Amino acid sequence: MALMGREHWKTIWVGSAGNMVEWFDWFVYASFATYFAGAFFPDGNPTAQLMNTAGIFAVGFFMRPVGGWLLGRVADRRGRKTALTLTVTLMSASAVLIAIAPTYAVAGYGGAFVLLLARLLQGLSVGGEYAASATYMTEATDPKKRGFASSFQYVSMTVGQLIGLALLIILQRTLSEDALAGWGWRIPFVVGAAGAAVVFYLRRTMLESEVYEESADGDAAVGEKGSLRALWEHRREAFLVVALTMGGTLAYYTYTTYLTKYLSNTAGLPKQTATLVSFCALLVFACVQPLAGALSDRIGRRPMLITFGVCATFLTVPVMTLLSKVDSFWPAFGLALFALVMITPYTALSAVVKAELFPTGVRALGVALPYALANSLFGGTAEYVALWFKDGGIESGFYWYVAACAAVSLVVYVTMRETRDVDLHRVGDGRKSSHERTARLAS
Question: Which domains does the chain show, CATH number per domain?
């Protein structure tokens, strides 16, 4: 029986609170990079320093497939609760490492090595976090409200970033530029480590999802649960996850983690103004996620994804071009908000549509590994590729790159099957629920 009422909301809270802290740590690296870039690398070209820190940021993404495989396997074999507790432990350790990392002046490139190690741990953790929380919230909620519940995946991710941006705004207004670059940038990583300790307690007391518990031997033999061999049996769905994620994750990271730097480094807005623009736009973005998730529960996942694909394919270039020319808060805010609303039909459904593709015995791994691969190739490199185009004097090439990736995903959205009415107990066994058969006939 699906969880309802207070228990339903408790499930959403426990599943998303840890995700919030995980992504707070993940995003404050990007948000504070303009301040600590010079701390770990020799003085020189500011763009080159940002490229170095962006490169380390991207390296964290390349650990995500490893984390997706390892922690996805744990989630499928040992339970969602075990995996979720482990991910937040790893994230706490990485936050502590960044907070105490020595600067270039103290240890040369030793500080950059510590930073790299911390990012590898973060990548490992986040690679499993997304899938474990996505499968948990999808399985432990009312089947008719899966889209609504799973939309809190990106709500929590965005709230984590908002807290990071809010902390940045406070520090910008209370510390001098020199103090921020000297030691103030360490504060958010201390906060992240403390938050992870709280979430660790919450997750130790959480309940396992009923769908997982009722799976018993699952859709595969116990020894096959969470294995690559079992995932290979669902390789079509795995490739589908990569393709449908490609455009969405690139657009998301373009308009979130990269946006503040873009407004500051390209449009020429003051850092404080660029940060405030990102904060206000993301606040509205977080509020509309549940609305889009609830709408998908009524009209289906495909229409929402197709809407995103069309908008991102044809509007990315003009939106990014206009953003490069803004000179004050309001035009920047309006365009940033438009861009984030444009990608909402993807972000609100990202978790649920992937989880609905796989059977219980391989659901976490099926979401984790292909999603992490797509993020490594497209999301994690977004900032670095953008700066590479800028450094080469052809910044507009990045806009077309984002639009092209969105176009590839659009083709997938148009051709994929509807997943809204699948029975999570029976996914992958060749049998369909009556609701799904009706949906398939209608499509």
Answer: 9-421 (1.20.1250.20)
